[in-house]
Amino acid sequence: MATLVIIRGNSGSGKTSLSEALQEHYGRRTLLISQDNVRRTMLREKVEPGNLSILLTETIARFGHAEDLLVIIEGFYEAEIYGEMLARLRDLFAPRVFVYYYDIPFEETVKRHATRAKKDDFTAADMKRWWIDKDYLGWEEETFFTAGIHLEAACEMICKKIEDKHGRTL
Question: pTM of the full predicted structure?
Answer without folding.
Answer: 0.93
